[in-house]
Each structure stands twice: as structure tokens, then as C-alpha cells.
Design goal:
The chain is α/β, with parallel strands linked by helices. Helices cover 35% and strands 18% of the residues.
Length: 402
């Protein structure tokens, strides 16, 4: 399974608090190096895992958020970057709560980002008692001190001896089941028995021998819903429609052939794109739709940031680096300034841009995309995505199902 489709869980805490030991205990493997030397973990270590009550997940062991020095600052930046990708946070504490500034800072960060958070008391290796429910007790007075200082429930564990791990896993599964950020990519557009046509160009930009991630995710979703999925390239769409007794319920197309497909779409059939579906599935569809108005009002000397989630070698028909810039300059003129970033290279300062156009983000988690949306909103910069932008630029946005 693609890592971006796994539930992301991050382990955070000070240096030498037991983050790596807990990761190893949760995975049952020696994934991270464990040492009494503070600062052993220098970069986030991710491990794929199947968790009870959650399913496919990935757990990240981060560098200590109290790291110091020039190298420590770099490690902290990596930890902050990891924090933008996660769906659930485990904040580890240990010892006496003499200084809780870091823990409060990170707790508030995760609350603001609407990320479920669990506090874990580590290295509780003596006088340990644990019930078989989420009501955990221990005679270790430090746990009670932390509970009082943070005003938060804390789960005590002995990762070394494996005690309390089951209680922690139960709590993680409980938060997961209540997480309303989990989304169905075709939501209410599709029901069992619907005929859905997927239009997928097989040009030079298509990966050889495989489908791109949004197509894979959408196709699997349709199968899970017991819909009837039919696939074709754009040039075969007329033949596909001719051979159907009735118009399909929905056509899902690659955004780059939006206009071509829209011209062939029966009036009874809803139309959308993989990128628009990803905009709802991985981002904020209302914000992206509102930004389409700002896009169409761009000045001729405006500045656009195109952001790609993945890093790849550009090809002649690349949508983000070739086709979209060409469409923008055709609409607004050659004076338009366009910057393109990929992967984690998303600027902190966005004030120089008139608009941001983000890809479908199939390589990111939803919360990772939403962290970028929040950053753009905080700086009053409109942000949209490829599918919405292309539909607006080709004049068919009002005919697309959002």
C-alpha cells in the first residue's frame, strides 16, 4: 500500500525519553537505534505496520524536540516537518514535570491542527499496575504529577517490558475510530450498481506499466462500493459511450483532458476529475473552489506558486511543470511569473504569491495538505488545486461536480 494512504502516527518527546524504544515495542522489531545517549535519533524513522483497530499505518520516530545547537536546530526542523504529516501524535514524558514548556507547546500545536494526541509516561518499570481497560493506574507518583501539570490523561507504559502497550493500542484505536478526517474519495457521488467511466490518458506522462496513485485509489474505492467501473483512454471514450445501453452515472477524467471529455459527456451524466476528487479527499474543497475566482482575476504580471507533492523527473507532457504553466501563460500572458516547488520544499513565506496551485497530493496525507492550506490562509494567499484550476481555465468549472 502507498505510504500516503496509511494512517500516520508520530512519536514525539524530549531526547532520551524512550521514543525509539516505544517504536520498537509497537512494531515488534528493532527499527530505531536505542541508546542512553541523548540525540541518537537524528532524522524521522518511519515504519509501516498493521495496527489493531486501525489497519494500515505508519509510525514515525522523531528527533527530540529539545535538541540544541546548530545540528539540533536542523533536527528540530525535521521533527516539525514530520508533525505536519501525521494523523495522530504520541507525546512521551518521563521523570518529574519540572519544565513542561515543550510539552505544552507541542500539545497546543497538535490541538490547533486538530490532530488526536495521546500522552504516554515512559520507562514505568517498577511498581507498575495496569487494568485491562483504558483506566490505567500506577503507583509511580511521577505520572500523577504529569497528569496534574498538563491536565491531561496519561497512559503509563514499560516499552522495555511490554507492559501497558495493549492499553495504548486500545486508546489509539479508539481515537482512530472517532477521527472525522478519514474520507471516502467518491463520497456520495457513487453507490452500489452505478456505472462509472474512468478516462485515463496513456501518453508520455503516464507511468509505464502502471496507473498513477489517484487512479488506483479511485478504482479500488469503486470496487469496494460494488460500482461497475469501466476504464478507457480519451480517444476510446466515444466508443465506450456508444456501447453502453444507458449513459453512465459518472465520468471521472484526468484533468488535462477535462474540456475534451466534457464535450462528450451526456447531459444526464455527472463529470469530475481524479484531481477534483483528491482535492476533497486530501484537502479543503471549499477553499480550493473559492480560490478559483482569485485565479481568474490574476493580473498579467502576477506571481503563481505551483506545488507538487512528489519529486520526479519532468517529462515533455508533465502537467504541473509543462501543461499548467502553458495554460496559465496563454490565459494571462507571458509576463506571468511562475515558481514550481516539489516534495517538502514549500515556502514558509508565501506573501510574494498571488495564488498557490497545489497538485492532487496523492503522496501526502490529508492533514499534510491541510497544514499547507492553513499556512496559506494565515497569510491571506488563495490556494487551489490542479483539477479546480484546469476546470476554471478551460471554462467548464460550473459543469464539474465538486
Amino acid at each position: 500500500m502507498q505510504r500516503s494512504n496509511r494512517y500516520h502516527i508520530g512519536i514525539f518527546g524530549r531526547r532520551n525519553v524512550g521514543k525509539s524504544t516505544l517504536l520498537n515495542a509497537l512494531t515488534g522489531q528493532d527499527v530505531s537505534i536505542v541508546s542512553d545517549v541523548a540525540g541518537t535519533t537524528t532524522d524521522t524513522v518511519w515504519k509501516n505496520i498493521e495496527l489493531p483497530g486501525i489497519g494500515a499505518a505508519v509510525i514515525g520516530d522523531t528527533a527530540g524536540f529539545d535538541d540544541i545547537g546548530e545540528l539540533g536546530t536542523m533536527r528540530n526542523e525535521r521533527t516539525k516537518r514530520a508533525a505536519q504529516q501525521i494523523d495522530m501524535a504520541l507525546i512521551l514524558v518521563n521523570g518529574k514535570p519540572d519544565d513542561i514548556s515543550y510539552e505544552l507547546q507541542w500539545r497546543d500545536f497538535f490541538k490547533k491542527a486538530d490532530i488526536p494526541t495521546i500522552f504516554v509516561m515512559t520507562k514505568v518499570d517498577a511498581d507498575f499496575t495496569c487494568t485491562d481497560t483504558l483506566n490505567v493506574s500506577t503507583s509511580a507518583t511521577d505520572t500523577d504529577l504529569w497528569k496534574s501539570a498538563l491536565n491531561e490523561d496519561i497512559i503509563p507504559v514499560s516499552a522495555k517490558e511490554g507492559r501497558g502497550i495493549d492499553v495504548l493500542l486500545d486508546k489509539m484505536a479508539s481515537l482512530y475510530s472517532n477521527d472525522d478526517n478519514l474520507d471516502d474519495i467518491t463520497y456520495s457521488l457513487v453507490k452500489a450498481g452505478d456505472v462509472v467511466v474512468l478516462v485515463m490518458p496513456q501518453d508520455a506522462s503516464a507511468p509505464k506499466g502502471r496507473l498513477i496513485q489517484p487512479q488506483v485509489v479511485t478504482l479500488r474505492n469503486l470496487l469496494d462500493k460494488h460500482a461497475l467501473a469501466l476504464c478507457c483512454a480519451p480517444e476510446e471514450l466515444p466508443l465506450m459511450l456508444k456501447n453502453l445501453n444507458n449513459p453512465p452515472s459518472l465520468i471521472i477524467t484526468d484533468s488535462q483532458v477535462f474540456a475534451q471529455v466534457q464535450a462528450l459527456t451526456p447531459k444526464e451524466t455527472k463529470l469530475t476529475s481524479f484531481s477534483v476528487l483528491m482535492a476533497r479527499h486530501k484537502g479543503d474543497i471549499d477553499t480550493f473552489r473559492e480560490a478559483a475566482d482569485a485565479l481568474m482575476a490574476l493580473p498579467k504580471n502576477g506571481k503563481v506558486l505551483i506545488a507538487e507533492a512528489c519529486s520526479h523527473i519532468p517529462q515533455n507532457e508533465d502537467i504541473g511543470r509543462v501543461k499548467l504553466p502553458k495554460m496559465l501563460r496563454k490565459k494571462f500572458g507571458e509576463e506571468l511569473q511562475i515558481d514550481i516547488v516539489s516534495g517538502n520544499d514549500f515556502p514558509e513565506d508565501l506573501s510574494q504569491y498571488d495564488i498557490i496551485i497545489h497538485c492532487g497530493a496523492c503522496m501526502f496525507t490529508r492533514r499534510h495538505v491541510l497544514s499547507r492550506v492553513r499556512r496559506a490562509k494565515a497569510q491571506n494567499i488563495p490556494i487551489t488545486n490542479y483539477g479546480i484550476a484546469i476546470a476554471a481555465l478551460t471554462g467548464i468549472l460550473n459543469k464539474v461536480t465538486i
